[in-house]
C-alpha cells in the first residue's frame, strides 16, 4: 500500500513540476524576462529529475486486463488399510468413514503491454510506460527549455562581451554642426581621423544657387583612447550648411550620413521632405527578445523592423527615451562600471544596429533600467557606475545641456523647441502617495528637483522665434495617470508637481500660436492621451483687499490698525481655451515584451471633468515607434502636426493636431476659431 501511494505522489510531482516548468519557461522566454524566473525554473527542474527517474524505473510496461479465479472441489479417496488397521476389539459395528474433499484454486491473469501514451507523455512530462524514445523526448523538451533559459541569461554576458567593439555613430546634429561618437579599442588604428563631405548631388537646379562642393574635408583627429572612457571619443563637425545631407568617414573604417537641421522657424526645402520636419521616438531595447534559440544572442528584431520602416521615412533624428539597456533583466550580473559598460557595448555590437543608425542621428535620455528598476536613489548607490557609460556613449554626443554638468537638455530645430527632462536623478523617493497635499493640492514631493523644475517652467514661458510652433516635452516616463500597474514610478506618483506643469503648459496655449506635446515611453505599450484644461478654469489670488490688523506705516509711533471686517482677497478666475489642450504620445518598446494584460484605463484627478482623456490605446506589439511630422502651411497661422504609430514595422494608427490660434483674446473665446 505504501509503495502504491509513493508511486502516486511521484507521478503527480513529475507532472506538476513539468507543466509549471514549461509554462514558466514560455512566459520567461516570450513575455516577461523577470529576474526571479530562472531561480524558480531551476528549482522546478531539480524537482522534476528525481521524480521522473523514479516513475521511469517503477512504472510497469504491462497492465492487467482480466483476472479470473476458479475454485474446484472433489472427494479425496481414502485407502482401505486405514480402516482395517483398527483393532477389532475396539470396533463396534462398522467402522465410520469421514468424507474428505480437495479444493483446487486456479487464478488466470490476462495481461497486455501498455500503449506508449505518446500525447500524455509529451504534454505532461511523465515517462512513457513502454517507449524509451518518447520518454527521452519529453525529458529532452524540459532539458531544452532550461538550456534556453540559461542561454538567455548567461550566453551574452560570458561569450559576447564585445571588448573588441569598433563603431561610430551620429549624435546630435544642429543646423550648422554635428557630433560623431567613436569607439576604437585597437591602438594600432590610432590616431583616428574623420573626414566629411556634401552628399547631395553637386549640381543645383535652383537659378543663381552655388553648387555644392562635394570634395572631402578634414574634420579633426583623436590621438588617444583608453579605458578611462571605454575607448570612446567625440568628433565635432562645425561650419555646416543647414538642411544639407553630409557623409562622414573615420579612418577606422566606419561611415555614416546625416542631414543638418533646418534653421529655427523653418522647415526643409529638400526633395521628399519639402515643407516638413520629421523625427521619430521610442524607448526600451533588449537584444534577442522575445527569445529565439536560433538567433544570434545580440540580434534585435525590433531594430530590423525599425530599419525597414525608416526606408520610407525621412527623419532628422531618433529621440530615444530611455531603457537603452536592461542591466537587471533577466539577471543583474554585477554592479561595477564594467558591468554597465558591457551592456552598452553589447547593444552597439548587435548585428542589427548599423542599419538602424547609419543614416539617422540618435539622441538620448535615460530611464530606470540604465541604473536599476524604478530607480529613485538620485546619485547614490550604483548611480555613479551606471552614469559612467551613459556619459561616454550618450551624453557626450547629446544636445547641449541646459546647465553645465546637468543631465537635461534643450534645443530648437525647424518648427519645434525641445526640452529633454531627466526624470531620475533629481526625484524624491518613490512612495505610496500621489505627491499631492490632500487639503491644498500643493506638491509634497518632486520628480524634477528644484533647479530643473525652474528651468523647465522658464522654457515653457520663453517666447519662441517666429515659425517655431511647437514645444516638445521629452519625458522618459508617462505623464498620464491612466496606467495602473507600477504607476507610482511615473508621473502618477507626483501629481502635485504634474498639475503645476500642466498649468504652465496650458498657459502656452492661452498665449496662442504655439502648441505643447509630450513624448514618453517606458510602459511597453502605446497610448495617446489628451490633458484638457478644466472647463471652469481656476481661481487665482491677484491681490489683497483692505489691510487688516498690522503695523500702521503712517504712524511713527507704530500704532496698530484696527481689523477691517471687509478685508478680502482679490481673486479672478483664469480660464484656458480648449485649444490649450496638451497631448501626450507614449510609445514603446522598440524591442522588448509587451504586457499580456491591459493596464491603461481612462481616469481623472477631478470629479468635475476627465483630466486624462484616452485618445488611443494600442498595447500589442513587440516593436513600436512614433513618427512626428510638422508643417507650417504658408497660408495658415497655425502649425500642423501629424503623428504616425508603427507596430512591428507597419503603420498602425495616425493622428493630426493643430496649434492654438495665434489671435488676441482669452479663455474659451479662442475656441471658436480653433481647428
From TrEMBL:
Keyword Membrane annotated: yes
Residue ranges annotated for the PhoD-like phosphatase metallophosphatase domain, each copy included: 301-536
The keyword Aminoacyl-tRNA synthetase is assigned to this record: no
SUPFAM superfamilies: Metallo-dependent phosphatases
Leader peptide range in chain numbering: none
Transmembrane segments: 36-54, 132-154
Coiled coil: none
The organism's place on the tree of life at top rank: Eukaryota
Assigned keywords, A-Z: Membrane, Transmembrane, Transmembrane helix
InterPro entries in alphabetical order: Metallo-depent_PP-like, PhoD-like_MPP, PhoD-like_sf, Phospholipid_Metab_Enz
Protein name: PhoD-like phosphatase metallophosphatase domain-containing protein
Organism of this sequence: Oleoguttula mirabilis
